[in-house]
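sry for the spam today, last one i promise. C-alpha cells for design, 172 residues
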C-alpha cells in the first residue's frame, strides 16, 4: 500500500521509506512480438493537423505468442516471489491484472527499409525509393525489432547516412 495512504508522517514515514527502498525488488520483462503485416501505420483519410498533414493511424494487436510469454512470465514471477517470501506484490500498470501490458515508449517502423519499392519506403542506405535526395535517419526504418533500445542503432544509421552523402557529394 502507498505510504501516503497508510497515513505515515515525519520519522515513521522516513523509516518506512528507508525500509521500503532496502527491501524492494522490481522485475521487468520485455516480450517479443512476432512480425505481423496487420500491425502497421497508415494515414488517416479524414483527420489532418494544422499543416494539412494526415494524422497517423496505428493498427496494433498482441498475438497469442506474446500473451503466452506473458502468462509464463507471471508463473515464473510467482515462483520467485514465493522463494523470496515476498509480502506485498504489485503489478504495473494494473495491480489487479498481472497480464496487462505496459507501453514501451519505443515507436518504430512506418517507413520500412527494403529492396522492393512496392513493399518498403527506403532502401538499405535509408534513402527514400520515391525521393532520391531524401534520407531517413530514424527508428521508423526498422523492419522488425525487439522492444528496446532503438536509439543507438538510429545513431549508427545516421552516421552511415552521413558517409553515404559525403561519398555521393565527392563523386558529384
Ligand atoms: C519516454 C521515452 C523514453 C525513451 N527511452 C529510451 C531509452 O532509454 N533508450 C533508447 O534507445 N530509446 C529510448 N526512447 C526511444 C527514442 O526516444 C526514440 O527511439 C528515438 O527518439 C527515435 O528517433 P527518431 O529520430 O526516429 O524520432 P524522433 O526522436 O521522434 O524525431 C522525429 C522528429 O521529427 C519531427 N517531426 C515530426 N513530424 C514532422 C513534420 N511533419 N515536419 C517536420 N518535423 C517533424 C519531430 O518533431 C521530431 O523532432 C524513449 C522514448 C520515450 C518516449
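last one done:
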Amino acid at each position: 500500500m502507498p505510504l501516503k495512504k497508510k497515513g505515515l508522517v515525519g520519522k515513521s514515514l522516513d523509516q518506512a521509506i528507508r525500509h521500503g527502498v532496502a527491501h524492494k525488488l522490481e522485475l521487468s520483462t520485455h516480450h517479443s512480438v512476432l512480425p505481423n503485416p496487420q500491425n502497421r501505420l497508415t494515414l488517416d483519410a479524414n483527420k489532418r493537423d494544422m499543416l494539412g498533414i494526415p494524422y497517423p493511424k496505428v493498427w496494433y494487436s498482441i498475438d497469442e505468442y506474446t500473451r503466452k510469454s506473458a502468462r509464463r512470465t507471471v508463473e515464473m514471477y510467482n515462483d520467485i516471489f514465493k522463494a523470496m517470501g515476498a509480502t506485498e506484490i504489485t503489478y504495473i500498470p494494473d495491480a489487479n491484472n498481472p497480464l496487462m501490458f505496459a507501453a514501451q515508449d519505443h515507436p518504430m517502423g512506418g517507413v520500412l527499409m527494403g529492396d522492393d519499392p512496392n513493399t518498403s519506403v527506403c532502401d538499405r542506405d535509408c534513402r527514400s525509393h520515391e525521393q532520391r535526395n531524401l534520407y531517413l535517419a530514424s527508428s521508423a526504418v526498422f523492419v522488425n525489432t525487439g522492444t528496446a533500445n532503438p536509439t543507438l542503432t538510429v545513431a549508427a544509421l545516421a552516421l552511415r547516412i552521413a558517409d553515404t552523402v559525403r561519398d555521393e557529394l565527392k563523386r558529384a
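The first helix runs from residue 10 to 23. ok im logging off now
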